[in-house]
Amino acid sequence: MDTEPTSPTGEYPHVPFTPYVPAGSAVEESAGFLERMRLRRSVRMFSARAVPEEVIRNVVAAAGTAPSGANKQPWRFVAVASPELKRRIREGAEAEEREFYARRATAQWLADLAPLGTDPSKPFLEIAPWIIVVFKLVRGDGEEPGREPGVYYVNESVGIATGMLITAIHLAGLVTLTHTPSPMGFLTALLGRPANERPFLLLPVGYPAPGATVPDIGRKPVDQILVVER
Q1: Considering the entire predicted model, what is its pTM?
Q2: If exposure means fewest CB atoms within 10 Å of the residue's CB, which of 25, 58, 96, 198 is most exposed?
Q3: Is the Cβ–Cβ distance between 203 and 176 less than 8 Å?
Q4: Does the pLDDT of residue 144 top 70, yes or no?
Q5: Which pLDDT belongs to residue 182?
Q6: Nearby residues of 60 by Cβ (< 8 Å), 6 or more positions away
């Protein structure tokens, strides 16, 4: 049974909630969304075909609707289209990747990666028309170092926003790939970001190359990832 909402106690004024009302039932809409998301894949073969900046603005704005701890929105998205900057990002990423494959990765990690055929070469970082570098804010803008940071659940908040960004990219008919060269400190200096921003991951964004392929991998069935307690 529905109950009357309680009166708000916080300082923010409350406004009426406007729910999203889909055309179909919840079962129909959730099934349709599932089918669309089953087509989402991490793609490493990109076309150089242009993507309008308006598309990037829209998908980032969609990511910015994510929930966050105390509504601090501790994220920054740096969209890179400059060929020179993309080249330098590739150089920095490949340098870290060579170290990873040669010295940093454990034998088990390399064995788990082997079936996917990945290696230190990352040409997609130059071919894709855009790279979106996601930064997490470890302090709010303007907060002084040495004081307790006024941001909360940063990794959780930025992780949710990034997931929504990936979904928005997919539903715009584009492809992407989560790339996390480690360490990623070179991105802070390369993109001139302030000390309160730390690289979280980067996403090349664009259209798939003609004839692009992806590994023939599966997903765990829902019964392996869902526990229902009735």
Answers
A1: 0.93
A2: 25
A3: yes
A4: yes
A5: 87
A6: 77, 79, 132, 165
